Here is the input.
Amino acid sequence: MKVTKKFTLPESEIPTQWYNIVADMPNKPQPLLHPGTRKPIKAEDMEGLFAKELAKQEFSTERWHEIPEDVRTLYKIYRPSPLVRASGLEKALNTPAKIYFKNESVSPVGSHKLNTAIAQCYYNAEQGITHLTTETGAGQWGSAMAVAARHFKVGLDVFMVKNSYNTKPYRKIVMRTYGANVHAVPSPDTEYGRAVLAKDPTCLGSLGMAISEAVEMAVHSDNARYTLGSVLNHVLLHQTVIGLEAEKQMEMTGDYPDKVIACFGGGSNFSGISFPFLRHNFLDGKKTRFMAAEPAACPKLSCGKFEYDFGDTEGLTPLIPMYTLGHDFQPAQIHAAGLRYHGGGQIVSQLKKDGLIESYPIDQRETFAAGITFAQSEGIIPAPESTHAIALVIREALKDKAEGRDETILFNLSGHGLLDMAAYEQYMDGKL
Amino acid sequence: MKVTKKFTLPESEIPTQWYNIVADMPNKPQPLLHPGTRKPIKAEDMEGLFAKELAKQEFSTERWHEIPEDVRTLYKIYRPSPLVRASGLEKALNTPAKIYFKNESVSPVGSHKLNTAIAQCYYNAEQGITHLTTETGAGQWGSAMAVAARHFKVGLDVFMVKNSYNTKPYRKIVMRTYGANVHAVPSPDTEYGRAVLAKDPTCLGSLGMAISEAVEMAVHSDNARYTLGSVLNHVLLHQTVIGLEAEKQMEMTGDYPDKVIACFGGGSNFSGISFPFLRHNFLDGKKTRFMAAEPAACPKLSCGKFEYDFGDTEGLTPLIPMYTLGHDFQPAQIHAAGLRYHGGGQIVSQLKKDGLIESYPIDQRETFAAGITFAQSEGIIPAPESTHAIALVIREALKDKAEGRDETILFNLSGHGLLDMAAYEQYMDGKL
Here is the structure.
């Protein structure tokens, strides 16, 4: 039997609109609250920090948002991304399940993060903003922002946790190559950073500190704004290009997903692949299950409480109604740095509360074993984040085998792991 | 004006045959000679070292070779690769030239090397060979072999120059992740390696030593063969999938290349993109120019002598009629490790001798500058090898600008540079 491996779309099929799931949710997300007054905040309240259009999208209840032509043009560098039949993995597992994955690792920075980086830089540039700041942990988000900022001729300062800056030097050089300024956090370049360094010159930083420095620089610079790579509604909105393309590609296969699986950090790749299909559960009576693969070290959806909490460690952001492990929760130093966030965000948390999505915590040893199985059967080494999705896929496909069920599983390969090989080595050497 | 960015082909358009340029060369390459007798050698003489079918291909004068279905199936993981309009680079250079590139960096190991690794592992496995050996410098070839060997369930030992083993640790882990054994050369695992270590325990190895160890292990192991990633005729043959796809894709653009440009190490990516187009010079009166971009540190085609020389440092291989800097030539430690080979191979050298292709030596500072221009305008960080092609493209495109000429340039992006970021850092820090 010949199996088609890749289902590809022409550039003309890059979506022209992003999908906003808020329009179709049975229960809308509860409002963000001002941390002082505890009153609902509005788009205008966020315009000092984010581009106007992004702040507007954050509060939108419109179902569809036009994708600007300049954004679609830049998407053409790597989009539409292929939908791939994981025939090698199916064979390795000897499962009757049909496994497909959306390959977001084909972006030039190696992950799905570029989908929203391009949009965010575009709206800022359109508004005349000349300088952007952001933070990055492992560096995937910072790399994506570096490419996009360069294209729209906007300056970019990336605040990178010093621990990653030292241990993942390649990501830092990638950002520099694209033209970004990269600071090791805590840095001597902000008041907050200098204060931290004064207390502890050997401090290796945290994502919370990086946010504080990036926000400070944005607020205190002329004509500058801050950007964020996950959690927020406008970020999830932009990522729906993943699922909208996958919908068309699944049609080409003749199958429809019984399960959609993605790893879960702040929700951007999970929402990107899930929401367009979840819409068909809402509107067309489909019964697809949506399964978030969380790190056991940071299982906010599986083990967190649903409550109002801050988005950052310092407590500077609006209060977000979400599943959270507490804004001061410090997860273990797992290799999937992109999944080490304490909260589930406003939309995803409401969906989880309403029983419309599921979540599963997975230990990183299981995920690296899954990553190696995938590399050896499909040829692609997955990012440590993406190995969580693959581990859950393997669990489900083996259940299908035991129960003789030929269901269709779709998962999102959010990125490749070529810059994370040290983590694989530790796993292979039994050091995890 | 809207520019189509990527020209993509469906899987059904993966070539069904490789193209052998020997059939159409006005002057055939001179024969390989036995180093002892200096008499022409035959396919049978090479069957102890290489799979029978590969040895046969090495001496073939047939124009077309059927691509086995199992090889085409594995090609589907990443082929057909996209042809891309470099509209960002054109804009950055403000040139009237139309620049296209074939993007071979989309392979899961990041380079074109997989095109022949798959074929070589297939033929060995078909013959019942259970174990393969090879050497690798920077690790691109070893990584490709690791993926392919795993797929065909053939064991693989890769001998990696110790200097690279130490300074490019990620490549080594990539190979391990796919299941290969990786040895740092000189290694304690062969007689030759042990002899070298006895003399100099701190020796950091060389490609010549790595070949000697890989050949020794192949010859002294049961049911094993050796494999090579460039230079040889059968390797060039397999790489013609690049140009055969590009031919169809250039038709989609409505343009035809006036110049085809690729970097040149042992000739595999240069031949892969060039030969299918060169055939139209031979058969259809086209006037395309074929331009090899060589490192100034190792300019075999530009500055070498045409003479019979050994393929390896030790003098174990047949004598090859080729442009060579001498088999004991030690090029400087440039970052484009894949271009540090002393000879041009049998076919390419004959073509150069007959004035059918051209070559240009380029200093690595110019190539890294070109690599950064490309990264910032096209979003993709090129491999140090590929930056040589880009530097030559930029030279030509700027000439076109000066002379107001809108010619069409096609080049091969042989790989991405995500595992070579240390080299970019050295360049940016002014340390090259």
Q: What stands out?
A: Chain A has 16 helices and 15 strands. Chain A has a mean pLDDT of 95. The two ends of chain A are 40 Å apart (CA to CA).
